[in-house]
């Protein structure tokens, strides 16, 4: 596989048309399959790199269930390399962070190692200097600022953020320590495709103001004997969306908030990777009463 620089320009409001223009140019000029990837280098500047794939990698059309902007959307395209078993198109992930991004790092590493059938294609943050943003830049992952504030005047509006994520062809959005409320425009654009991880067993110790060490201090002060991370779908409020997965962590008699936080975080890293793998393999199903479940990879008849 080889890469070459193809195109760059300023187009904060026209990501998708530029992307399609390149695709049209490729289809008329290259006998091999080509895939343009978009990298935002500064507030509005966008450059594209082109990756060529051998013509031996053919595309065939089948009907299957694929989680693109909805866990129930039907797609007609999977990719199959000649002489090998068929494989599902890798999902494209956007991760949102406000701090160090340890869950983001775990997910990205799992994608690189192949345990997740997807790739983090863009990072969104409300703090351009946070550790998660620096890690993304070091790994060559585009970084987007959102929202626009007095402290971050280069941030995007909600409508522009939707356009940019569409330009990246994002399938799922994963919140990993992102402390801003997700706007309604984004929730409507990505129904049943935005997820958050919270460091307590929701619905306990959730809602506005419950984040970081505040959660663990509240858990210990309550006398609760168990805590642990929760992954849930995102709706218009803080921490009220449908619960998808949880992991129980004991609260020990002499725990400090820092000690409890460290044990919960270890389970967060594992759980978020497991759930992301299930998302990228289309293993999320919905019970008749609207409760989401994860189908076991080893035994499709089992759910958790």
TrEMBL record:
Pathway: Purine metabolism; IMP biosynthesis via de novo pathway; N(2)-formyl-N(1)-(5-phospho-D-ribosyl)glycinamide from N(1)-(5-phospho-D-ribosyl)glycinamide (10-formyl THF route): step 1/1. This is Phosphoribosylglycinamide formyltransferase, chloroplastic. It is found in: Plastid, Chloroplast. Residues 91-276 form the Formyl transferase N-terminal domain. InterPro entries: Formyl_transf_N, Formyl_transf_N_sf, GART, GART_AS. Pfam families: Formyl_trans_N. Belongs to the GART family. NCBIfam families: PurN. GO terms for cellular component: chloroplast. One of its GO terms (molecular function) is phosphoribosylglycinamide formyltransferase activity. Its EC number is 2.1.2.2. It comes from the Eukaryota. Gene3D superfamilies: Formyl transferase, N-terminal domain. It catalyses: N(1)-(5-phospho-beta-D-ribosyl)glycinamide + (6R)-10-formyltetrahydrofolate = N(2)-formyl-N(1)-(5-phospho-beta-D-ribosyl)glycinamide + (6S)-5,6,7,8-tetrahydrofolate + H(+). Its main location: plastid. One of its GO terms (biological process) is 'de novo' IMP biosynthetic process. Keywords: Chloroplast, Plastid, Purine biosynthesis, Transferase, Transit peptide.
């Amino acid at each position: 596989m080889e890469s070459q620089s193809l195109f760059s320009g300023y187009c904060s409001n026209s990501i998708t048309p530029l992307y399609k223009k390149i695709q049209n140019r490729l289809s008329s000029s290259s006998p091999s399959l080509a895939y343009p990837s978009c990298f935002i280098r500064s507030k509005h500047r966008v450059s594209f790199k082109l990756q060529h794939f051998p013509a031996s990698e053919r595309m065939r059309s089948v009907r299957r269930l694929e989680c693109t902007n909805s866990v129930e959307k039907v797609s007609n395209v999977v990719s199959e390399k000649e002489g090998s078993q068929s494989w599902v198109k890798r999902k494209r992930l956007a991760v949102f962070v406000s701090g160090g991004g340890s869950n983001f790092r775990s997910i990205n590493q799992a994608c690189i190692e192949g345990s997740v059938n997807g790739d983090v294609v863009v990072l969104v943050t409300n703090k351009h200097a946070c550790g998660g943003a620096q890690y993304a830049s070091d790994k060559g992952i585009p970084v987007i600022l959102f929202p626009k504030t007095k402290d971050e005047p280069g941030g995007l509006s909600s409508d522009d953020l939707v356009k940019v994520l569409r330009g990246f062809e994002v399938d799922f959005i994963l919140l990993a320590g992102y402390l801003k409320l997700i706007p309604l425009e984004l929730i409507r654009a990505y129904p049943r495709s935005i997820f958050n991880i919270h460091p307590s067993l929701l619905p306990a110790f959730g809602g506005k103001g419950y984040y970081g060490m505040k959660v663990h201090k509240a858990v210990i002060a309550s006398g609760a004997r168990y805590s642990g991370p929760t992954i849930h779908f995102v709706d218009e409020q803080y921490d009220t969306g449908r619960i998808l997965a949880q992991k129980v962590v004991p609260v020990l008699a002499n725990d400090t908030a820092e000690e409890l936080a460290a044990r919960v975080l270890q389970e967060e890293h594992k759980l978020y990777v497991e759930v992301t793998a299930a998302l990228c393999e289309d293993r999320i199903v919905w019970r008749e009463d609207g409760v989401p479940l994860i189908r076991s990879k080893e035994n499709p008849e089992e759910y958790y």
